[in-house]
Amino acid sequence: MARGQVIYDEGEPPGVMYRLEAGCVRLQVNGEDGDRQIVAFLFPGELFGFCLDRRSTSAEAVSEVEVTRFMTRMVLEKSVARPDVVVELINRSNALFGVLAHHVEKITHLPAHERLIWFFNWLLRHADDARAPGVIELPMNYRDIADFLSLKPETLSRALKQLEDTGYLVRRGQRTVVLRQACVALPLRAGDRLAATQADSATG
Amino acid sequence: MARGQVIYDEGEPPGVMYRLEAGCVRLQVNGEDGDRQIVAFLFPGELFGFCLDRRSTSAEAVSEVEVTRFMTRMVLEKSVARPDVVVELINRSNALFGVLAHHVEKITHLPAHERLIWFFNWLLRHADDARAPGVIELPMNYRDIADFLSLKPETLSRALKQLEDTGYLVRRGQRTVVLRQACVALPLRAGDRLAATQADSATG
DNA sequence: CGCGCGCCTTGACGAGGGTCAAGGCGGCCC
DNA sequence: GGGCCGCCTTGACCCTCGTCAAGGCGCGCG
Asked: Can you give the pTM of this predicted structure?
């Protein structure tokens, strides 16, 4: 599927579920004013669209993507003989909820630059291509990141510059960021105040 | 269970799931700074806590509540013979995600007073005791509402006053609000600009 | 009956981020 | 190779909401 393609729209009746094989997909809610909130980025291996009444969000291709389609009904019928499939589906579904719950807590409580730090560390954990440590290839553009973190593109741009100026990261082109050592080593403390690292980076 | 009681904590291993029989339960994420984001209010009839790895959120009693406990494992084992149970669980799980997704879109894109209008209309639809139209009995205190809408209590208080001053609603005590006709009649247009109704209410 | 503690309210002030506007930069198509 | 378009950047300004501080109100307990 091509970049930008709508996989399904909110409100549609379902029937098909997907497994993402390659690329990146976003789940989003489209507001009435043209506003958009991205509630999840999905990476290879993840299942999505396994609902039974109505699509609660839209799904769109962030990059070129490859998916496998399944008839949801058939999967469930077979699952009667395969309890592990049921467990898997419920686990995945709950995981989506849990990740979103934490996402909400972050984007509503952190200032812009800390949302970004959290986002990059999250990417490192969930979409790591395992190349050089701290190097992140972004599959999405800045607009998508802004809508994920609930920021405007201008604010995102400024926060990014601020992080670069304080030595937190380096940008290589628009689709690659390199996190500095201190940040890579502290993936669990992404919420820390930026100020704590300013002294370090000033000397670097 | 008494008001304020912790039903389970984030991170705990599960084992038991619940059906809410009476009262109101909140699902929440507790931030590191003591900040709290409430991601869902649950009302009678709803299932919660049916996860299999770790609790992704905490659950606490908003009011006095009555719940039925089930062994999650047993429910799933029985469900092998009952596909409808599986369908039900997956539906519920997806519904939670969908509701939260829309919740996020609202609290990140609407100003304080519109979040409140949306919240009240949401309560009317989901927790309606079917008494007089537009009358809402709040099971939770202002702090809970603030944490649900991602506002500070002060801002909530001010927004509430603003809505009262513009004639959008009337407060009877601290736990009852009465929505005006124009608002009750437009549950789907909760996102409208407040200004549109100011002229109306000024004459009322 | 009165005191005290939570919860809500109100005011003054400041900061972070949204808005508007314009400019740079790169990629793609012709 | 040149031009155009979309995406990102930068600046100036303003507005909403958060913060700090103090006061009111009601409920429960002594």
From this structure: 0.87
Given a cut of 60, whether residue B39 has pLDDT beyond it is: yes
User: B147 CA to chain A: closest CA distance, Å?
Assistant: 10
Higher pLDDT: B204 or A87? It is A87
Find the radius of gyration of the CA atoms of chain A: 18
A98 touches chain B (CB under 8 A): yes
- Find, among A190, A204, A63, A74, the residue nearest to A139 by Cα: A63
CA distances to A1, A10, B87 from A70, rounded to whole Å, are 16, 19, 16
Residue of B39, B50, B89 with shortest CB distance to A104: B39
For residue A188, how many other CB atoms are within 10 A of its CB? 9
Structure tokens at A15: 């029937």
pLDDT-based confidence at A190, cuts 50/70/90? very low
Contact between B64 and B2 under an 8 Å Cβ cutoff? The reply is: yes
Q: Which residues of B touch A76 (CB under 8 A)?
A: 83, 86-87, 90
Q: Which nucleotide is nearest to A111 if distance is taken from CA to C1'?
A: C16
- Report residue A137 as tokens: 């290839």
Report, in ranges, which bases of strand D sit under 7 Å from a protein C-beta: 7-12, 16-21
Is any atom of nucleic acid chain C found less than 7 Å from the CB of residue B156? Answer: yes
Eight-class DSSP state of B58:
E
* Nearest-10 Cα torsion for A137, A142, A146, A148: -40
Residue B196 half-sphere exposure, CB side, CA atoms within 13 Å? 9
At residue B185 the predicted structure's pLDDT band, cuts being 50, 70 and 90, is very low
